[in-house]
Amino acid sequence: MKLKLLTLVAVLSAFLVSGAFAAEKKMGMEKMAEMPFGGMEDIAYAKMLWMKIEKKGLNSTPSNLYIGGKPHGAVREVLEAIIDGKRVIVKRNYGGEGVSLENVANDRAKYLKAVTVMAKREKGYDSKNNDWFWVKYKADGSLHTNPKGVKLAGLIDKTQKRKGCIACHNSASGGDLVFKHNKEANADVVYIK
Predict the structure, then answer these.
(1) Number of domains in the chain
(2) Pairing relation of β-strands 86-94 and 132-137?
(3) CA separation for the pair 191, 57 (Å, rounded)
(4) Which of 14, 117, 119, 156 could bond 165 through an S-S bridge, CB–CB 3.0 to 4.6 Å?
(5) What's the pLDDT tens digit per position in 146-188?
(6) Residue 81 pairs with which residues in a beta bridge?
(7) Sequence-distant (≥ 6) Cβ neighbours of residue 83 within 8 angstroms
(8) CB contact at 8 A, 86 and 120
(9) 41 and 9 in one domain?
(10) pLDDT tens column, 1-21
C-alpha cells in the first residue's frame, strides 16, 4: 500500500512539474510571438502624446488641405512641431462620402477619420528605423486597431514585409522615413511653434 501511495505521489509530482514547465514554456512562446506594437507601454505613451499634441494645438490648427490617397485619406493635412525637444509630425486624414477639399475646409470634424503621428523617441528606441514612434488615433484620441484588435501604437507592423507604417515609410527618400511635402504638390507642412 505504501509503495502504491509513493508511486502515486511520484507520478502526480512529475505531472505537476511537467505541467508547470509546459505552462512556463507556453508563456515564453507567447511573449516571443507578441507584436512589436500595441502593448501597454505603447498605449500609455500614445495617450501621453495625444495630450501633448492637443496642448500644442496640433489638433486644432487648420493646415493646408491637399488631395491624398491610401492608406491615409482622400484629403489630408500635415502639421509639425517640436514636443519635449523631439520632432512630431501629425497627419490629419479625411474621408467618407462627399469628401472633397471644399467640403473638408467647411467641416473638418465631419470628415476626419484618423490622425496619424510619427514622433521621434529617445536614441535607441528603434535605431534601425530612426527611432520613430508610430500611432493611429481616431478623431477623439482613442486608438485605431488592426484586424486582430491590436491597438495601432508603437512599431506598427515592423514585422510585416509590405504592410504598415514602417514598411511604407522605408520607401521615403532621404533615409529619414519622412515623405517630402512641398508647395508643388500643394502639400505644404504647417509648423507650429
Answers:
(1) 2
(2) unpaired
(3) 11
(4) 156
(5) 888 889 888 766 555 556 665 655 655 666 756 566 555 556 6
(6) 88, 192
(7) 49, 52, 53, 56, 119
(8) yes
(9) no
(10) 554 544 444 444 444 444 444
Residue 170 is part of which domain span? 35-192
The helix (H) or strand (E) run that includes residue 176 is: none
User: At residue 157, what is the residue type?
Assistant: D
Which residues are CB-contacts of 172 (< 8 A; sequence separation ≥ 6)? 178, 179, 180
Q: Do residues 124 and 131 touch, judged by C-beta distance below 8 A?
A: yes
Pair (17, 48) in one structural domain: no
Note the pTM of the prediction, 2 decimals.
0.72
How many angstroms separate the CA atoms of 16 and 74, rounded?
A: 58
What is d(CA 43, CA 155) in angstroms, rounded to the nearest whole number? 12
Q: Which residue has the cell 493646408?
A: 64
Segment 18-26 mean pLDDT: 42
